[in-house]
Amino acid sequence: MGTTWTQMICALLIFQTPELPAPLGRLSPWLDRVIYSREAVYSRLDCQHHRRFIKTHTPLDGIPVDPRATYIVTARHPLDTAVSLYHHRNNLNLARQRQLAGQPEPTEPEPPRKPLREWLPDWIDHDADPRAELDSLPGVMWHLSDAWARRAEPNVLLVHYDDLLTDLDGQMRRLAAALDITVGENSWPGLVEAATFEHMRAGGEQITGVSSILKDSAEFFRRGRSGTAREILTAQQIGHYHTRAAQLAPAGMLTWLHSPA
To answer: Is position 258 annotated as part of the catalytic site?
Structure first.
């Protein structure tokens, strides 16, 4: 959700109208989404005449970093990221996704998923290769630690999900400045309203653009708040998470990640 939210904000700043001229996914292709061919994505980009803004879930160390481009990395408390991932997977039409990606059907049915309360501690403890499992805790920390190390570079900008929740207007103005986009003062209220969670949820398919692989496009914008994981974990489990996190990421980044300014 955080990446799509930032993508939507970029669209609003570039087109400077609450009513986008096309679905978000068409205006801003998802470069590494496996359900689209590379040729189709490149062709769509080649036909664009507006300022390009491209979505990717690949960490910065996996893509070319060009001084002519601006790289915006959206971060969220990893426990909230995990809860979002859990519900997002439940909302995926996996058979349709495999079909679009040209992947074979599994030979055996997947085992039922554990309830979130049991799954989340397992996610915290899972000792994955961060480069192979980007959605694991090691993978999330690998990605964000690399972006954190580059934060002083002029074309790298880190955005915190909770800052979007608490100061959407201020964060949109910060993004506009980083992208060198001038917005008339009278236009700001309409653009900020169009970027609110409630407005995006009402937009549903126009924003997600992937209704064929989602069971419910509105469910993609499920709650739009933080702290759910801390509500279901015990104090001991939360303490264990912080111990794990300290082994995977630098202290300064964790301070920012866990307690945004």
So the answer is: no
